[in-house]
Design goal:
By secondary structure, this protein is α+β, with helices and mostly antiparallel strands. Helix content is 31%, strand content 24%. It is built from five helices and ten strands, in the order ααβββββββββαβαα. The chain has helices at residues 2-22, 27-31, 139-145, 153-167, 172-179; strands spanning 47-50, 55-56, 59-65, 71-78, 90-92, 103-109, 112-113, 127-128, 132-138, 150-151. The longest helix has 21 residues, at 2-22. The two termini are 27 Å apart.
Length: 180
């Protein structure tokens, strides 16, 4: 519990500092833990990370959020497994296919948590994850942040903040303002 609190607190401080240094807050910074300074090209397929501890063999569903708030399933992925934490939890962001001005919901379901105690060291055995974590971001922001896009407890908290707007009486302006 203390590690989760530290993660949320650290991420919140990082997002706040980045937002202050830019003079604005944007969705990419709200949904992720880190920002990318590297530029990405349309030819480069980017990978995000599903991370409670890193989640192997989790199902990833990527939805496009329509103008009326409905969800259209676009892609399904399975997160990677591997020998190190850096290899575990990767999935395609489908950056080439993302429409810059559209919002996308990334939903990670289940998987094998290989760092359940969040100490940055791969556990000898995985812990089964039966939960769901989500992230919402605009196509342009996902492309900008690139491979630093992470679906985490923090992105889930932000999703929960806008979930009712998405599900009931969707208004795109209210939705975007709340995310920002």
């Amino acid at each position: 519990m203390i590690n989760l609190f530290k993660l949320v607190l650290t991420t919140t401080v990082i997002v706040f500092l980045i937002a202050c240094s830019n003079g604005e807050t944007d969705t990419q910074q709200s949904v992720t833990e880190e920002t990318s300074t590297e530029s990405t090209t349309e030819e480069t397929p980017l990978q995000g990370t599903a991370q409670l501890g890193n989640l192997a063999n989790a199902q990833v569903e990527i939805y496009e959020i329509e103008e009326n708030g409905s969800l259209t399933l676009k892609w399904r992925e399975t997160t990677s497994s591997g020998d190190t934490l850096n290899e575990i939890g990767k999935f395609s962001l489908h950056n080439k296919e993302l429409v810059p001005d559209k919002f996308y919901l990334y939903k990670v379901i289940g998987g094998e948590d290989w760092d359940a105690n969040d100490d940055g060291v791969k556990d000898p055995n995985y812990t089964e994850n039966n939960g769901i974590i989500r992230a919402i971001a605009k196509g342009v922001d996902i492309k900008d942040i690139g491979s630093n896009f992470k679906i985490t407890v923090v992105s889930e908290i932000l999703y929960e903040k806008v979930a009712n707007i998405l599900k009931y009486n969707f208004n795109s302006t209210t939705f975007e303002n709340t995310l920002n």
